[in-house]
Amino acid sequence: MAAGTMVELVAARNDIDCTDQLEIFEGYQKVFVVNGTNLKIIDFVNTKLTVTALTTAPTRGSIVTQATSNATMVVDFVNAAKTEIYGKTTSGTFVTTAGYTLSGGSMDPETRVPSAVAEASTTPHWYDYVVYPDGASGSLPNSAYLGCLYRGRIVLSGNSNYPHQWYMSRQADHTDWAYVANDAQSPVAGNNSDAGEVGDIIRCLIPYKDDYLVFGCANSIWVLRGDPAIGGSLDEVSLTVGIHGSRSWCFDGNGNLYFWGTGGIYRLKRDFTGVENVSRVALPELITDENPNPSTYRVSMAYDRKRQGIVICVTKLADGTSSNYFYDLLVGGFYPESYPTNCGVYSSFYYAANDDTYSGLLLGCKDGYIRVFKDSAKDDDNGVSDTAISSYILYPVIQLSSPDHESKLTSLIVELAGGAAGGAFSDTDGVTLDLFSGDDAETVVEDVKDGATSFSTTVLSGTGRKNKLRPRTRGAFVGLKFSNSTASETWSINRVLYETVKAGRV
Amino acid sequence: MPSLLNLYQRAEAEARAGNLRREKEVRGIYGNLANLYAPGGAFGKGYEAQLERSKERDVASGMQALVSSGLQNTTQAAGLGKKWEEEVGAPARLKLEDLRMDRYAQTQRDLAGFTERIENPYPDYGSLMQAYSAQASAPQAVPARESVTSKLLKARQTNPYMRSFV
């Protein structure tokens, strides 16, 4: 595998509304585009034959053969006008030679010769997502903003007129939406509620393999286990917790579901043994602080397999301003971040390439670029320019002595990362150390948060163990803030050692 | 001679009338049977009623199962009746219809056989002529003359004032 170049699918230009919510999902070697009334397909597998309008389209799944060339295809789809036949070529090559007529599949007439032949391997086909034109395939919902593939069915939801409804195509046939066929693969539509009630507004569809499908609603969560047409069941997971939006969820490496819910960030274990708020202790005011209105903000979440954590991005759709968090699954800590407005994340996706060089978490950004977290980069890419990374960390506030005594910080030893200068390990850049003290921990934290003047400021540079500092800071509690906002610099600390002496009562 | 002919004719007319009466009666029975088995007939009404009741019961059970599985608010619920018809109702009705038509056809066959077996008996002129011949050559029976005693007995029975030694 080698690095490729992205190109525009020209046929899609002006055929979708990028100012509106747009979701895509894959299935049957196609990408399904769900964009309100714009329901489209990007076809990566079929051969497209353009013909003069047929009276009767060949039946889906039938074999169409071309005379003389003897090319054959399995018919997958025919457009509504019956002028385009899409099928998987199974032998030979279709041509436009006069007299090379098409036949088979009960098509009528059998005198058509393709006026054009296009292969998806050259350029993916772009066409309207509609039902098969046989008059017996029902109809798709008029509008949809949510979609996914589950158990071989195309699942659509987010119909503005029926926001509580979900719709499923026939299994293994994305063109059949005729409900109540009453077989085991029958198309099905419905909502999530107790008998006779209208369900909650569906905000996201979360399929987990072919095992279950979670419906994240505004104020509740439901799960469909199995298939609705044969032995499946639909049950509520929570009637008090909802999910923010279509992208505000992700699975970790163990199959646990994380999502941005009505009260913070939640984890739903893969065995459905309860919904747990994992941000409640560390970020009790998360929802109040962020207050992301679903109509103006997008919350996207993605599991970074390399860093074993979850990147949570809260982005204002209008201008790309963001407030983000990295939730480290190893230590259970939340690390707040904000990105340049050009880098405001609208979508995120972990791309697993054969070559690990190209694997990583992809971030679709406000300016149209797809970005990645690059360990070697020392600045944030901001389009035409770079932006210095401004970062800080407050070490856990230290109680220096017994509860009613103060102490004096007599020595402080900092070990910066990188070992010796140069060598095999990456060296840290400099870092600034600010010392704060107070009679209680909250005062120390508040001073840091408010940007109050610190007791002392020291700039550390170079790698490895630094010279012993003698700050002589006095107080019951001490806080150490390390920071760096310099362009082209990043930093890292191995550990901090200190010594104290008692200094009287508080 | 004319009296013998009349006897023959009367007997033949009585026999024919009797046959026609039986034929009409048998045709009536076949007609009733045909009406019973004909489409829209009464045959299987009870079974059909039982099927409907069975449908109600099964659809209700199906709906309960959907409620239990949380899928009652889906198109699966709307399809319960259709599904029942496809899986149970239609096969049962077809079987009933097959049976009905089988019996209807049998009735028609029986009627056809009956009609086929009907014979119109023509006068047996040979017998008639034999009867005539026999009548001509045989001694003629002369009615016996009534005796005096017999007359007296009759008179005694009818006249209570008459007493005799007889």
Proportion of helical residues of chain A:
under 10%
Taken as a percent bin, the fraction of beta residues of chain B is: under 5%
Radius of gyration of chain A: 29 Å
Q: What level of helicity do the residues of chain B show? A: over 70%
Alpha-beta content class of chain B: mainly alpha
Name some characteristics of this structure.
heterodimer; A: mainly beta; Jelly Rolls; five-stranded antiparallel beta sheet; elongated; B: mainly alpha; 6 helices
Task: Describe this entry's structure for a reader.
The complex is a heterodimer of chains A (506) and B (166). In chain A, 3% of the residues lie in helices and 45% in strands. With 506 residues, chain A is mostly beta strands. Chain A has three domains: 119 residues, no CATH class; 145 residues; 114 residues, Jelly Rolls (Sandwich). A six-stranded antiparallel sheet of chain A has the order 8-5-6-7-4-9, with no helix packed on it. In chain A, strands 32, 33, 35, 36 and 39 form a five-stranded antiparallel sheet that branches. In chain A, β2 and β3 form a beta hairpin. Chain A starts with 22 loop residues before the first strand and ends with a strand. The mean pLDDT of chain A is 95. With 166 residues, chain B is an all-alpha fold. Chain B is built from six helices and no strands. Chain B is elongated. Chain B starts with a helix and ends in an 8-residue tail after the last helix. The mean pLDDT of chain B is 83. At the A-B interface, β14 and β18 of A face α3 and α4 of B.
